[in-house]
Hints:
The protein has 2 domains: 1-31, no CATH class; 35-148, Sufe protein. Chain: A, CATH 3.90.1010.20. 36% of the residues lie in helices and 20% in strands.
Amino acid sequence: MKVSNKLIILAICILSPSFCIGQDLVTGAKRSQDTTRRFKDGIYEGKSQSEYTSEPFWGIVRIKVENGLFAGIDFLIRDSALHETFNEKYEIHFKDIPEYVEQCRNDWKGVQTYPLILKQAQDVDKVDAMSGATWSYNIFKASAKDALKDAGK
Length: 153
């Protein structure tokens, strides 16, 4: 019995609608995986201050690549002057300046979110800055690019 290609594609779409509509079934988000850009498997680390070279902050990114795709991404920002990691408690240094407290909160959200976006997009250039979190975005993007400089095809 000969099965036509159209029937096979129809079966795939019925059994796996995310395949046909390009959406993730769990999140409903549009997938934007760039399958032409594959990296060598391994773990890559990068570090950068981005354009903030007069500040003591360093972004550190660790990217795990499996089967040519980003499988895990860790990101942190380290304050080399105070010897501490930028996190949800860092705002204590600015407790009397409400604008800086808000900025810390926005950038902390960026630190947590940018790795997730990169894993979904699979392309550093497809990660967009979140409103209010440009500082962490610039440091993340520069650090990720530094990590991937040796991860080419």
